[in-house]
């Protein structure tokens, strides 16, 4: 998505450890006009899919998912992150190990809001090692819902998440894929 790539080049800031800061337009301050275009693009790429629900994970995914949902006209449900709490049977739970943040946390979702009748589109801001997305995929599996695919705004193509998820046969659409960050310079995948 050219508009997004241009914006990353203009306003993205590369930090130590291959971290790309996009907090001026995507995941802290949010440029709603840009995210509207992101939502339209997700709709275009998953237009043939019978999606009934968009699933994301707190926190940064929520705003993006909500704007995208206006084009799909389906509810958004977001999984919550919890520090190993006592979970009762009314929740789907899965453990996520974040390499980025070096910690393990539970991802939880009420069983009320996802079931076998659902066709799910996953949406998130970043895909790096993919632990967060794999957690959501596990929750979809536990719910018996059909996974239609995953829409990611920025994929770090030099980390393993994208490959892992494509190898699972999942329809993954990343609107900008960064193949390398060398000397502070970004290279996008064509
Ligand atoms: P991981 O397995 O390495 O933990 O990677 P994963 O793809 O699950 O991403 C973990 C978290 O790190 C995600 O946020 C993701 O958005 C964020 N992240 C990874 N690489 C970058 C980057 O280069 N720039 C920015 N800005 N974020 C990055 P999260 O833990 O789900 O938290 P939240 O921000 O959504 O609350
Ligand atoms: Na995120
Ligand atoms: Na994030």
From TrEMBL:
One of its GO terms (cellular component) is cytoplasm. It catalyses: XMP + diphosphate = xanthine + 5-phospho-alpha-D-ribose 1-diphosphate. Pathway: Purine metabolism; XMP biosynthesis via salvage pathway; XMP from xanthine: step 1/1. Its EC number is 2.4.2.22. Its main location: cytoplasm. 5-phospho-alpha-D-ribose 1-diphosphate binds at residues 128-132. It is found in: Cytoplasm. Xanthine binds at residues 20, 27, 156. SUPFAM superfamilies: PRTase-like. The keyword Cell membrane does not apply. One of its GO terms (biological process) is purine ribonucleoside salvage. GO terms for molecular function: xanthine phosphoribosyltransferase activity. Residues 51-153 form the Phosphoribosyltransferase domain. NCBIfam families: PRK09219.1, XPRTase. Homodimer. PANTHER family: HYPOXANTHINE/GUANINE PHOSPHORIBOSYLTRANSFERASE (PTHR43864), XANTHINE PHOSPHORIBOSYLTRANSFERASE (PTHR43864:SF1). Belongs to the purine/pyrimidine phosphoribosyltransferase family. Xpt subfamily. Converts the preformed base xanthine, a product of nucleic acid breakdown, to xanthosine 5'-monophosphate (XMP), so it can be reused for RNA or DNA synthesis. This is Xanthine phosphoribosyltransferase. It comes from Blautia luti.
